[in-house]
What does this fold into?
Amino acid sequence: MIYYTSTYTGIISYYTSTYTAIISYYTSIYTAIISYYTSTYTAIISYYTSIYTAIISYYTSTYTAIISY
It folds into this structure.
């Protein structure tokens, strides 16, 4: 009886660890993909924000110069 119990426990342990490893693997891939797209999106937003800020700054300084003149 002890033999079967230990065998059963070993089988359960094997499948549990395998399942955990598979879940961990796919979770890490998913996390990497999300991280990639998040950083790319952040970079794009930052790029366009800086362009927009530069344009606003240009027109503001030009307008200020005209008013000052």
Summary: The mean pLDDT is 93. The helical segments are 2-68. The first helix runs from residue 2 to 68. The CA atoms of residues 48 and 54 lie 10 Å apart.
